[in-house]
From TrEMBL:
EC number(s) on file: 2.7.2.3
SUBUNIT field: Monomer.
Gene3D superfamilies, per the entry: Phosphoglycerate kinase, N-terminal domain
Protein name (Swiss-Prot/TrEMBL): Phosphoglycerate kinase
GO BP terms in the entry: gluconeogenesis; glycolytic process
Listed InterPro entries: Phosphoglycerate_kinase, Phosphoglycerate_kinase_CS, Phosphoglycerate_kinase_N, Phosphoglycerate_kinase_sf
Gene: PGKH_1
Signal peptide positions (record): none
Gene Ontology cellular-component terms listed: chloroplast; cytosol
Length: 481
């Protein structure tokens, strides 16, 4: 296992100067915006466009987290690369699936190398043990061979981080690749071309998986961000390669997002925000089974208020989720979970960064105004509740944090978590926009764990089993003494 050392590490890797200065677009958040236009969230025209620009410009992510693995009882006990002996690795061809899906600008420059740095500890461990590393990833969502989705631009940064010249193959299967594998020295690294250049990858076609597998002796999956996809290189390949084990990054994500959440130091608080309750139903329901305190913020709170008969002005509301909101409140009560909704909100007269704003009690939102952030009383109540906790998980911003005027609640929560982290509370940031918020405030380095996967972390928090994880070998049972 990657062990905890310095606080300025990313899963064991010291943060490099470029990693700390690269302030760039979070891949998951940028893609969320592309997939979910603000117009669909109920916002129109120039405001939506300016928010998009603003949002993208402020997506800052250079994840550094202190590695403090918590191997909880329920942390999906999978065999880890750290469980393999030196003899099992020396001279062996190891197929490593990583998630190197990093954002590139128009000139093919990497704008956020977080995921590359996160993959380094596993690769270095294999190199140090004399393995021959066959590194594989997807990039983007190409339809067939598409030069702009080639992994070639990643080679210089990978080589720099690994301290060797990484060899790049032009394909991911076939005779040329086989020749390159045959000439790989112990400790060498061969980067295969984008696996998604073959449609068989996403279709998880066994013949394609078999061809990938035929390159190697054993398999390591470290691609947490893609572990929710049952693809040939994340799932299919495990049927043809034994052992199939988890890499250090995947293990750490599981340790926190499953282990620490299933077996938390209590009291355990969950903070859930974001735009819509509909996209967080699974997460809220799952966390209600585990947490002691649930704090809700973001656009979803207005559906809860409306369900309670309050006026919400022109705030974001999902009319078809009113009953659901009521049932979640009842469920929390039945389970003895202390569910807190904000007592006051910051309202705006339009959805824009320069909107007029004021703070009102949640029960007094006038017509024509919309709630875009939680208010100061709510921040105080939330902070007081968080002061009692030993574990906190956060997913989703408290307000429209892309507009400075409505970022106060989200930033206050980020600062509070940083403060708690310093006092020994386990703080977990579950991917998505909360990662961007923590980065923006500059407190990422002090959090216990910041996830590298958006969709994957949401699915894990919903209690789903990830296909890329379930396919791996079980950890050996501890020997009774
Ligand atoms: N009160 C609000 N009204 C409208 N949108 C909101 C509000 N609060 C937060 N949001 C928006 O929610 C979005 C993030 O939602 P979501 O994708 O569900 O969270 P995450 O990415 O953390 O999972 C942000 O773009 C933010 O602007
Ligand atoms: O960036 C990713 O996911 P994310 O945007 O949910 O964090 C992963 O690389 C998975 O990519 P995919 O959603 O194209 O399968």
């Amino acid at each position: 296992m990657a062990s905890a050392t310095a606080s300025h590490t990313l899963c064991g890797i010291p943060a490099t100067s470029s990693s700390t200065t690269n302030k760039v677009i979070a891949p998951s958040s940028a893609r969320f915006l592309a997939k979910t236009p603000l117009r669909r969230l109920g916002f129109a025209g120039a405001a939506a466009d300016s928010l998009f620009t603003n949002h993208v410009a402020t997506k800052l992510r250079s994840i550094k987290s202190s590695s403090k693995p918590v191997r909880g009882v329920a942390s999906m006990a999978k065999k880890s690369v750290g469980d393999l002996s030196a003899a099992e690795l020396k001279g062996k061809k190891v197929f490593v699936r990583a998630d190197l899906n990093v954002p590139l600008d128009d000139n093919q420059n990497i704008t956020d190398d977080t995921r590359i740095r996160a993959a380094v500890p596993t690769i270095k461990h294999l190199m140090a043990n004399g393995a021959k590393v066959i590194l594989s990833s997807h990039l983007g969502r190409p339809k067939g061979v598409t030069p702009k989705y080639s992994l070639a631009p990643l080679v210089p940064r990978l080589s720099e981080l690994l301290g060797i010249q990484v060899v790049k193959a032009e394909d991911c299967i076939g005779p040329e690749v086989e020749k390159l594998v045959a000439s790989l020295p112990e400790g060498g690294v061969l980067l295969l071309e984008n696996v998604r250049f073959y449609k068989e990858e996403e279709k998880n076609e066994p013949e394609f998986a078999k061809k990938l597998a035929s390159l190697a002796d054993l398999y390591v999956n470290d691609a947490f961000g893609t572990a929710h996809r049952a693809h040939a290189s994340t799932e299919g390949v495990t049927k043809f390669l034994k052992p199939s084990v988890a890499g250090f990054l995947l293990q750490k994500e599981l340790d926190y997002l499953v282990g620490a959440v299933s077996n938390p130091k209590r009291p355990f608080a969950a903070i859930v925000g974001g735009s819509k309750v509909s996209s967080k139903i699974g997460v809220i329901e799952s966390l209600l089974e585990k947490c002691d305190i649930l704090l809700l913020g973001g656009g979803m709170i207005f559906t809860f208020y409306k369900a309670q008969g309050l006026s919400v002005g022109s705030s974001l509301v999902e009319e078809d989720k009113l009953e659901l909101a009521t049932s979640l409140l009842q469920k929390a009560k039945a389970k003895g979970v202390s569910l807190l909704l904000p007592s006051d909100v910051v309202i705006a007269d339009k959805f824009a960064p320069d909107a007029n704003s004021k703070i009102v009690p949640s029960s007094a939102i006038p017509d024509g105004w919309m709630g875009l952030d939680i208010g100061p009383d709510s921040v105080k109540t939330f902070n007081d509740a968080l002061d009692t906790t030993k574990t906190v998980i956060w997913n989703g911003p408290m307000g429209v944090f892309e507009f400075d005027k409505f970022a106060v609640g989200t930033e206050a929560i980020a600062k509070k978590l940083a403060d708690l982290s310093g006092k020994g509370v386990t703080t977990i940031i579950g991917g998505g926009d909360s990662v961007a918020a923590v980065e923006k405030v500059g407190v990422a380095s002090v959090m216990s764990h910041i996830s590298t996967g958006g969709g994957a972390s949401l699915e894990l928090l919903e209690g789903k089993v990830l296909p890329g994880v379930i396919a791996l070998d079980e950890a050996d049972a501890p020997v009774a003494v």
